[in-house]
Amino acid sequence: MRRVATGFTLIEALIALLVLTIGLLGAAGMLLTSVRNSHNSYLRSQASFIADGLVERMRANPLAIWGGHYNGVLNGTTPAAPTCGSSGCTPAQVAGYDRAAIARMIAQHLPLGSGNVACQTTGTAPVRNFGISPVNGQCRIMIGWNEKRDVDAAGFAGTQSFELVVQP
Length: 168
Fold this sequence. Notes:
Elements: H1 10-59, H2 62-67, E1 72-74, H3 91-109, E2 114-121, E3 137-148, E4 157-166
Antiparallel strand pairs: 1-2, 2-3, 3-4
């Protein structure tokens, strides 16, 4: 009499389990890559927001742009915000406050972040107390940070940068 085998054998069940495990590991790898890329996108957005914030501060203080008070490196060595007397702040003091605030934002939101501002003006500076003239020239704002990328060998943390060139 012949016996008809029904059901799964142990080998078939183990092979099915192996195929399922490989599929789940692939899905977990894709999820990890998605989370990492999402974080890198967040860092780029923060760099963009910080640069835009600096541009708005610069547009509100054109005399400091003409004086070159926004130029320089923005990192942990940026001087602390100045204190103003009872007569108010000069454009240079406002620029110093802005630089210190932006340097703090870079340090808080970007890993190993730093920045640099380089403004080149052309023509003559506006006369104070006679309205605000637009700045002739351009300002280059560069913000850099470290991020982990999938394309780097062995998860090497690469330096990324965001550059914004504007006429304030």
